[in-house]
């Protein structure tokens, strides 16, 4: 057919009698990402020629096929994971992690890691005390209302009486008082962040119990980052406080993995003294030795060094670390924020140039890791749309989802094993859940990802029409397409099904025709769009035209697909994100775990 003829590269002619199955055999070069002219993509960037039959005259029709024989990458079952910032101790939200609603929301994203780390990691001190009222810090004695303190204590006593998973039902007035406290503390936390000067935080034994209870009840595996800035006079790590925390956790038989420090490349600005990569590597070896002395953690996983953006000095730190401790850690970690949250605009989230900045970072990290420990797993930790806590109505809006979904697709296609989202709940605006415990757009996007996307990444091939670039100008593609095997945990689909997820940054709709192995299959559509009059700024979303909201504190809504008839062209609305499950493909790559 004329459409199949357009799917073949010039120089590989196909007669008009080509059988449909020939497409899968002759499609040249499988791309991991559907970017027609993305600068990072190697090879010929010329548009693939497609003739215009009369029925599609004046339209852009994109042909899409997937290699179903074998995956190009296999990522962790916990690929999409979560982070909580230690600031929740300061603003009081840690006391509310036992909320049934929060546990329900977190459980929806399991299985996953829960990383407890952030800017205040290296100012965290552990104290093995149980009395919460006497050990809690805050903005001053005049602020706290007696009934608020008493309610916290009564809640703790009630939790202590529960066996197994401990769930609390907090009265509305208690939550209202907490929100007032958090609003005041938010100003304090922002001042610390902008001045890069942080006060010490105390983590009590009871607070650690609450943190672990939340992770355990939600089906998340806790990763705890220890304070690396407790230093001896010779600049080696002082492990005394960490040892106290390790011993307490072991006495409770808590199943925890560990890290040491957060963004060590910034230590000079924090304390006026730097820790080089070699010394940091020695500190990690010291921590590994401590873990091996404690039976509960003798085989615990250790991750690091959680560096910042890989600029020249950061790469030097990573190289020094890998030389000394590359074999000591179970995965190498770094973090990335796309935009300075103080100057972000909604149009920033639509820039393909911004979406592409992560590719260069991945290559830099992989080059160093593969030089010293080939094959070592790499994680992106602490990723968010914006730094500096984010911006209201931007980093917590529908628009931020373009960056988030593209991050997931790009990292998976490049073989990054885990990505940790900052944050599940915190004082800023990069979170998945707001302070009324309502899920934000990126939460629903993450939930869809968890429900539909499996760990096996598939290669795709696209062909379509594209306008000619002006001389000297590179066209960055605004249509991003990724493919995975459908999640094995989703019992609505048989093994062998495939899920596509698509980002359309164009201001016009795009049409996609499934070809080859995907041709004439029934497709289930999950189209996520903003809900309400705020458009891209909206904090609410709709799935296939129906608003998404929790049914009650213990129940997430059913994510209902829209079935499309076999062979129907996919129509992707402008400025949207969508998932498409291609049923009963019987893909060889997807039949077995």
From TrEMBL:
<dbReference type="InterPro" id="IPR017853">
    <property type="entry name" value="GH"/>
</dbReference>
<dbReference type="GO" id="GO:0031012">
    <property type="term" value="C:extracellular matrix"/>
</dbReference>
<dbReference type="GO" id="GO:0016020">
    <property type="term" value="C:membrane"/>
</dbReference>
<dbReference type="Pfam" id="PF03662">
    <property type="entry name" value="Glyco_hydro_79n"/>
</dbReference>
<comment type="similarity">
    <text>Belongs to the glycosyl hydrolase 79 family.</text>
</comment>
<dbReference type="GO" id="GO:0016798">
    <property type="term" value="F:hydrolase activity, acting on glycosyl bonds"/>
</dbReference>
<protein>
    <submittedName>
        <fullName>HPSE2 protein</fullName>
    </submittedName>
</protein>
<dbReference type="GO" id="GO:0005615">
    <property type="term" value="C:extracellular space"/>
</dbReference>
<dbReference type="InterPro" id="IPR005199">
    <property type="entry name" value="Glyco_hydro_79"/>
</dbReference>
<dbReference type="GO" id="GO:0030198">
    <property type="term" value="P:extracellular matrix organization"/>
</dbReference>
């Amino acid at each position: 057919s004329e459409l199949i003829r357009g799917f073949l590269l010039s120089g590989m002619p196909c007669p008009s009698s080509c059988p449909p199955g020939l497409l899968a055999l002759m499609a040249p070069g499988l791309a991991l990402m559907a970017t027609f002219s993305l600068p990072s993509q190697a090879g010929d960037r010329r548009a693939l020629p497609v003739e215009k039959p009369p029925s599609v005259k004046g339209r852009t029709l994109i042909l899409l096929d997937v290699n179903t024989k074998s995956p190009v990458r296999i990522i962790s079952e916990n690929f999409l994971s979560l982070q909580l910032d230690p600031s929740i101790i300061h603003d009081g939200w840690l006391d509310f992690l036992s909320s049934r609603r929060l546990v329900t929301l977190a459980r929806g994203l399991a299985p996953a890691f829960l990383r407890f780390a952030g800017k205040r990691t290296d100012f965290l001190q552990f104290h093995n005390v149980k009395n919460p009222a006497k050990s809690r810090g805050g903005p001053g004695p005049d602020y706290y209302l007696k009934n608020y303190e008493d309610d916290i204590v009564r809640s703790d006593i009630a939790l202590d009486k529960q066996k197994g998973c401990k769930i609390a039902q907090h009265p509305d007035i208690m939550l209202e008082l907490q929100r007032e406290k958090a609003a005041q503390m938010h100003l304090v936390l922002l001042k610390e962040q902008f001045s890069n000067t942080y006060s010490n935080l105390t983590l009590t034994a009871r607070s650690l119990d609450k943190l672990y209870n939340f992770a355990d009840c939600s089906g998340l595996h806790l990763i705890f980052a220890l304070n690396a800035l407790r230093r001896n006079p010779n600049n080696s790590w002082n492990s005394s406080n960490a040892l106290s925390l390790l011993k307490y956790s072991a006495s409770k038989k808590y199943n925890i993995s560990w890290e040491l420090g957060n963004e060590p490349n910034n230590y000079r600005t924090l304390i006026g003294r730097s820790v080089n990569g070699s010394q940091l590597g020695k500190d990690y070896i010291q921590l590994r030795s401590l873990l091996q002395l404690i039976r509960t953690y003798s085989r615990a996983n250790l991750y690091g060094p959680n560096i910042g953006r890989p600029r020249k000095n950061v790469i030097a730190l990573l190289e020094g670390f890998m030389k000394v401790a590359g074999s000591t850690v179970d995965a190498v970690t770094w973090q990335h924020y796309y935009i300075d949250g103080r100057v972000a605009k909604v149009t920033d989230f639509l820039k393909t140039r911004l979406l592409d900045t992560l590719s260069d970072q991945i290559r830099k990290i992989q080059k160093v890791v593969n030089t010293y420990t080939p094959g070592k797993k790499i994680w992106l930790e602490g990723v968010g749309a914006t730094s500096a806590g984010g911006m209201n109505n931007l980093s917590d809006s529908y628009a931020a989802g373009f960056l988030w979904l593209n991050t997931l697709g790009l990292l998976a296609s490049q073989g990054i094993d885990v990505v940790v989202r900052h944050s599940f709940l915190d004082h800023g605006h990069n979170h998945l859940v707001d302070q009324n415990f309502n899920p934000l757009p990126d939460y629903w996007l993450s939930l869809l990802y968890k429900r539909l996307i499996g760990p096996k990444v598939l290669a795709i091939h696209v062909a379509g029409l594209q306008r000619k670039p002006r001389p000297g100008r590179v066209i960055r593609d605004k249509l991003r397409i990724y493919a995975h095997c459908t999640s094995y945990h989703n019992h609505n689909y048989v093994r062998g099904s495939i899920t596509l997820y698509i980002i359309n940054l164009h201001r016009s709709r795009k049409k996609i025709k499934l070809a080859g192995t995907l041709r004439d299959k029934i497709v289930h559509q999950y189209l996520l769009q903003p809900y309400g009059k705020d458009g891209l700024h909206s904090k609410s979303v709709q799935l296939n035209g129906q608003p998404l909201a929790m049914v009650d504190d213990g129940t997430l809504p059913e994510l209902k697909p829209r079935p499309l008839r076999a062979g129907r062209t996919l129509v992707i609305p402008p400025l949207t994100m969508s998932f498409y499950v291609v049923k009963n493909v019987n893909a060889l790559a997807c039949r077995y775990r």
